[in-house]
Design brief:
The complex is a heterodimer. Chain A is an alpha+beta fold. Helix content of chain A is 30%, strand content 23%. Chain A is built from 33 helices and 40 strands. Chain A is globular and about 100 Å long. Chain B is an alpha+beta fold. Chain B folds into two domains: 11-83, Beta-grasp domain (Ubiquitin-like (UB roll)), CATH 3.10.20.30; 92-158, DNA polymerase, domain 1 (Orthogonal Bundle), CATH 1.10.150. Chain B contains five helices and five strands. Chain B has helices spanning 29-36, 92-99, 109-122, 128-134, 146-158, and strands at 11-14, 17-20, 55-58, 61-64, 77-79. The chains are: A alpha+beta, B alpha+beta. At the A-B interface, helix 1, helix 17, strand 29, helix 22 and strand 31 of A face strand 4, helix 2, helix 3, helix 4 and helix 5 of B.
């Protein structure tokens, strides 16, 4: 097969450039938000503020009456038809009718002349709700007294259970009884989200004369869009047209209809116009379907040779409020549970349980990454029990060609053993296993995945068209949608290979439901295999059409005609070869279609038994990790992936798919999780829902393994999707290996790892003596009353006592010319300063700022100074962080500033954000930023949600009513440097020490008419030696904890000490006892360690943030030592 | 009384062309670029300055155009992805992104290119570590970053 690789003139095996690349690098590619249509209106969606409520009435009259509003629709304006989804579980309308079942559910929609008018119209829709009790966890939804969440068609007949399945495959009970030993365990994963760079969005246009509805939409599956839109709007399918557009990522999240597609279409039909409806990131995060949260119980029964006699898997799936494609997901999970490794029998039972949360949906791997993690955790334990090397044992039990799994999968091409051997070699596994290093761990895992295994009948066949165009180029038509995987290029390569022409001669028109023959779309790992085979067939048929057409024209035999290098040779005629453009002229646009149907039997609909796919993908991944014992942070040192891809079609694109899948797996393993408060997602941004960035990725070595599949096009199998399947398991096993505790709750966050280490090493908790602060007696007493009394009362009655909602008009904007002008502008009611804008504009979208006037002070000359004033270093409040960091004189005097700034945010933010803005920014608490009706959002009558909610990021010291910590990194730094803030106001300037700059609650102690002008750092502090240490989820993220230290050292003796803590208290907390313990002592590691433990005296952590105590102590020690290293001795 | 109207002389340049931003001072720069100037190459990924998809260069410095206002651009030179190529000639970075498979869905690509452009302006021979640190403000969900880093390295070598 190697004769095909990288040979000039051949196509398969060549890293052909992505067809769309030139347009993409020039910003010319058109995505849905870039589509502009004549007379286009802008849509907006009204969403439920309740997790479960009856809709008593909706009054849209005021909204409809607003000038510029063209349509307002509610669920009652639509035909009253539910999405098809999997018809047996059809349970959702495009807009809610009578009831809402999750926070963020779509209730009504508006089309208006501008986005601003549309948003304003939403505020004029009055909905009368009767709030119903809600449940958020499957186990609660299964309780007898639980409220009924979704009446639905309910095929199980069990309340709140959409699907129930329970079955044995191949003599399970018998095999179980023969076991030499059984390994079992419980596992859980939280819900995650694809977080495509492009949010969901649609432009829909309706022509009232022809009754045609046309869509440009960010989807992977135009097939489903047409089918569902035609159904829910009761239009003839042939009147619904999906047009090509670039798609900014999918990963399964766009492989079915998304709600804005139906809603934009309904608005277009109602107005007879084009309507653009593109979701904001926030909307995308609260309404886009998420990967299902699961609790899993897995058991392995093993004989003494290590054969796996039986595997049992029980899974409870959190369905959210609607079933969508839950049936497919549950079935896909079933496939994974018994097929990886040679398993002789299997049991699978599951429940898909409704909760009042946003619905689950497809995501890359369809549950495999989590299920394989649970399985692979136990494979490690089995190998250990058998006294076998963990890779050797896996090679023993690896699937091999000819195997039939308990579920009926017939394995054909399979190089799993070779993949495992490759990982062993490339990872230097054997040597590393023998030379173990503390806190380092090795992990390995395998995966299996159907190369197109689709329960949907239409997924198992495909059609592709190929035709000649006027300029002689070929045009391939496919109804799949390239969401960035490079599949358009791959399909062109397969055709080109078949025809023996350059792939660059082929254009591809994807997504177009009118132009291309039917194809289910880009889902279920099917395009390369199923559509790819169809493309190959299309090329074959095209060649036939070409031959026949020309033979008839020229009066020769078809066999005399050949296509070489894009030219047609006419065998026996001594004519010049014809260019394809001439062929077009002579024969018109010769067109052919290729059809392929997967040659696999369909599984039994009830039992799930059957051979799902014509081929299966296999792979192995391994990595080495190092765990920081003080912070729990995992560093992946290296990562190896070997995957049986059948044959690489495009090595560059393939590697991008594999490395990209691993990256998503790294995110799932280490940080990604949706966090909810009363069913309301609070991880709605890239800050709170953390995905991997450049800095988080280890070096990844990818080794493609060829198995030359007999059915795949030119031997290829699916490759992109399943690259994620083994990643969580490989990382999880490596972490478990490093810490010596099996990790069974995903994601493996630092605080969980720290807790595991603490338990294993029986580390004593660091004493904090909370009541050394008398105030804590009161705080603690209130916290104890929170669950039973304070929280429920304040939550219920607090918002009613609070003032009315802040309205958010479009503010005026004024650019101040100088400080006097700025102070004058600030006297306007509702005026708010804007310097760098990095907090203000975000806060305005989140509703925490609603200024009437924005005063732009970004160019005020008075705020830009960096210089010396009476020995002090004066830094203007308007100085941008990157400018301050770049100043060599500042760095010479105070290297801590450059050091600290390098750890703040991103390059872009440091180019925009100012020193003053860093100090004055609002808290980053995820309850506050997501509009939860809390103390900080609504005032004194409302509770702090961090007391009982997910408070991992919150304060541990000094908090009272509000537990949001101070997010500013410069706050502890400037506090440790005894800096003085210079504040200008209507009555002149005043100087405030950084120790008094913040109020008890953490807000700057400034009035609304004042401007922070500059910061002075006194000479004495410049002579001290200072350092800053920070721990964050990744570089530049807001700190979980930070410590700034400033030491005066004379002849090795500490003469002055400042320690200021960041991100653990509402304001930069001085650790005064620790400071006192240092003064007068000889600088030494022991003295620093002792002082570091004193920094947390008085801490009173919340329910799940005591890891911050360890962080503060570790960071303090680190910063003290670093500071002393620079000190003159 | 403070004046409430925006000043009329809101001029700056975009890709070398002077623009009049009168009446748009308070709008995010990205909206002005996309909706008024029809330069849709700059993408909106989050709208909150967190993902880097909307990155443009302002006087050579990468900024998130979703949270800077048009009004704060006065006197500046703004460069967007459309301004990288001149006379149809792509930059070394654009070429190396294509060659190395440094893009998949392409939605982050304009922002990536702008950040990488600032990096190479400031540091023509960055180490791998410097690239990784510098580019941390740009999120990609497709590639896993490896080929982007390699593309920047290659552009630095050949640029």
């Amino acid at each position: 097969m190697d004769d095909l690789v990288d040979k000039p003139g051949r196509s398969v095996g060549r890293s052909v450039r992505q067809i769309e690349a030139p347009r993409k690098v020039q910003g010319l590619e058109i995505y849905t938000p870039d589509v502009k249509r004549p007379g286009m209106l802008h849509g907006a969606i009204l969403r439920s503020p309740h997790a479960h409520a009856e809709i008593r009435s909706i009054d849209v009259s005021a909204a409809a009456a607003l000038p510029g509003v063209h349509a307002v629709i509610t669920g009652m304006d639509l035909p009253g038809v539910m999405y098809v989804h999997m018809s047996k579980w059809s349970d959702r309308y495009p807009l809610a009718r009578k009831k809402v079942r999750f926070f963020g559910e779509e209730i009504a929609a508006v089309a208006a002349d501008t986005p601003q008018i549309a948003a304003e119209a939403l505020r004029h829709i009055k909905v009368d709700y009767a709030v119903l009790p809600a449940v958020f966890e499957p186990k609660d939804a299964l309780r007898p007294g639980a409220p009924l969440i979704n009446e639905g068609p309910n095929p199980t007949g069990i309340k709140n259970v959409a699907i129930e399945f329970n079955r044995n495959f191949a003599d399970f009970e018998e095999k179980l009884a023969q076991a030499a030993f059984v390994i079992e365990g419980d596992y859980s994963n939280l819900s995650a989200t694809p977080m495509c760079m492009e949010t969901n969005g649609t432009v829909a246009e309706y022509d009232p004369q022809s009754c045609d509805l046309t869509l440009w939409t960010s989807t992977q599956a135009p097939f489903f869009i047409r089918k569902e839109i035609a159904h829910v709007l009761q239009l003839p399918p042939e009147k619904v047209h999906v047009r090509p557009v670039a798609v900014g990522g999918g990963f399964g999240g766009k492989s079915k209809i998304c709600e804005q597609e139906a809603i934009a279409s309904a608005l277009a039909c109602k107005t007879g116009r084009a309507v653009r409806l593109v979701l904001s990131r926030y909307e995308d995060m609260i309404s886009g379907k998420i990967d299902y949260a699961k609790t899993m119980r897995v058991r392995h029964a093993v004989d003494k040779e290590g054969n796996i006699l039986a595997r049992s898997t029980s899974i409870l799936f959190d369905n959210g409020a609607y079933t969508a494609f839950g049936a497919v997901y549950v079935a896909a999970a079933r496939q994974r549970t018994n097929s990886l490794y040679r398993v002789q029998s299997a049991h699978y039972d599951c429940k898909l349980v409704y909760t009042n949360k946003l619905p689950g949906g497809q995501y890359r791997g369809m549950g495999a990454p989590h299920i394989i993690w649970a399985i692979e955790d136990q494979i490690d334990l089995i190998a250990d029990r058998l006294g076998r090397d963990r890779i050797d044992y896996r090679i023993q039990i690896a699937n091999r060609p000819g195997d039939v799994t308990p579920l009926g999968w017939e394995v054909t091409s399979c190089e799993l053993a070779q993949c495992l051997e490759t990982v062993r070699d490339r990872l230097d596994w054997t040597a590393k296993r023998q030379d173990r290093k503390p806190l380092r761990g090795l992990g390995v895992a395998s995966m299996i995945h159907p190369s197109a295994g689709v329960l949907y009948e239409e997924g198992n066949y495909a059609n592709v068209s190929l035709e000649i165009q006027e300029d002689g180029r070929l045009l391939l038509g496919t109804m799949t949608a390239d969401a960035g995987t490079g599949q358009n290029t791959i399909l062109a390569q397969l055709c080109a290979e078949e025809l023996g022409i350059e792939p660059e001669l082929i254009d591809v028109r994807h997504m177009d439901t009118d132009f291309a023959p039917i194809d289910l779309g880009s889902a279920a790992s099917r395009v390369t295999f199923v559509s790819g085979n169809a493309a190959r067939k299309a090329a074959e048929n095209f060649r036939l059409a070409l031959h026949n057409g020309l033979a008839a024209l020229k009066g020769i035999e078809p066999t005399d005609i050949s296509l070489e290098g894009g030219m047609v040779k006419l065998g026996r005629l001594n004519e010049k070869p014809m260019h394809l453009a001439e062929v077009f002229k002579a024969c018109g646009n010769l067109r052919a279609e290729g059809y392929f149907r997967t040659p696999a039997t369909r599984p039994d609909a009830d039992t799930g038994y059957g051979n799902y796919a014509a081929a299966y993908c296999f792979g192995a991944q391994g990595c080495e990790v190092e765990v920081d014992p003080n912070t729990g942070k995992v560093k992946i040192l290296n990562f190896v992936a070997a995957q049986d891809v059948g044959r690489p079609i495009n090595p560059n694109a393939l590697r991008g798919q594999i490395v990209g899948g691993i990256m998503q797996g790294v995110g799932l393993a280490l940080f990604e999780e949706m966090v909810f408060e009363d069913g309301r997602p609070v991880t709605t941004s890239y800050l709170d829902y953390k995905v991997p960035r450049f800095d988080d990725m280890p070096p990844i070595e990818f080794v493609p393994i060829s198995s030359n599949d007999p059915i795949g096009p030119f031997g290829a199998k699916a490759a992109g999707e399943p690259s994620i399947n083994a990643t969580i398991a490989a990382i999880g096993n490596a972490i478990s290996d490093a810490v010596g505790v099996r990790m069974r709750d995903m994601p493996f966050t630092p605080e969980k790892i720290l807790a595991a280490l603490r338990e294993k090493e029986k580390r004593a908790r660091i004493a904090t003596r909370p009541y050394s602060r008398p105030k804590n007696l009161h705080v603690d007493a209130v916290r104890r009353l929170y669950p039973g009394l304070v929280f429920p009362l304040m939550k219920k009655y607090g918002p009613r006592l609070a003032g009315p909602e802040k309205s958010a008009p479009v503010p005026q904007y004024s650019i101040a010319s100088d400080l006097t002008h700025a102070l004058e502008l600030l006297r306007t009611d509702g005026a708010k300063l804007r310097a760098g804008g990095t907090d203000l504009h975000v806060g305005m979208k989140q509703g925490i700022y609603a200024p009437a006037l924005v005063v732009d002070i970004s160019r005020l000359p008075e705020l830009q100074t960096i210089g010396e004033v009476e020995g002090s270093l004066r830094i203007g409040a308007g100085v941008k962080l990157n400018r301050l960091a770049a100043d060599d004189e500042v760095a010479r005097r105070l290297p801590i500033l450059r050091q600290a700034i390098s750890l703040i945010a991103t390059n872009q933010v440091r180019n925009m954000a100012t020193v003053g803005g860093d100090l004055c920014q609002q808290k980053r608490c995820w309850f506050f930023r997501n509009g939860v009706p809390c103390y900080k959002n609504k005032g004194a009558s409302c509770p702090c949600f961090a007391v009982l909610g997910d408070n991992r990021h919150h304060s541990i010291i000094g908090a009272e009513r509000c537990n949001a910590p101070c997010p500013a990194c410069l706050a502890p730094v400037l506090t440790a440097l005894d800096a003085v803030a210079i504040i200008a106001g209507p009555n002149g300037a005043r100087h405030v020490s950084m120790n008094e700059f913040y109020k008890w609650s953490g807000e700057p102690a400034m009035s609304s008419g004042e401007i922070l002008v500059a910061i002075d750092i006194p000479q004495a502090a410049q002579k001290r030696s200072s350092s800053f240490a920070k721990f964050a989820m990744s570089k530049g993220h807001f700190a979980e904890a930070s410590v700034a230290v400033s030491l005066g050292v004379e002849n090795g003796v500490i003469s002055a000490a400042r320690i200021a803590l960041g991100a653990v208290s509402p304001f930069p907390e001085r650790a005064k006892e620790a400071e006192a313990s240092l003064v007068g002592r000889q600088a030494s590691a022991e003295v620093f360690a002792e002082a570091a433990r004193k920094t947390v005296i008085g801490a009173l952590p919340l329910s799940r943030n005591d890891h911050k105590i360890d962080l503060v102590v570790a960071l303090s020690e680190q910063a003290l030592e670093a500071a002393s290293r620079f000190a003159p001795h | 009384m403070p004046e409430l109207e925006s000043a009329p002389d809101g001029d700056f340049s975009v890709n070398g062309n002077p623009v009049d931003a009168t009446g748009h001072d308070g709008r995010p720069l990205v909206e002005f670029l996309r909706d008024v100037l029809n330069l849709t190459g700059t993408k909106i990924g989050c709208g909150n300055g967190e993902c880097g998809a909307c990155t443009v260069l302002v006087d050579g410095a990468a900024m998130c155009s979703c949270i800077v206002t048009a009004g704060s651009m006065r006197g500046s030179d703004v460069m967007t992805v459309e301004g990288l190529a001149s006379d149809g000639r792509l930059t070394a970075l654009q070429e190396s992104f294509m060659r190395n498979g440094a893009l998949q869905c392409g939605f982050c690509t304009p922002g990536m290119l702008m950040s990488a452009t600032e990096l190479l302006l400031r540091n023509p021979n960055p180490t791998r570590q410097e690239i990784v640190h510098f580019m941390n403000g740009n999120v990609c969900r497709c590639t896993g970053y490896a080929q982007i880093v390699e593309a920047i390295e290659e552009a630095a070598r050949h640029g």
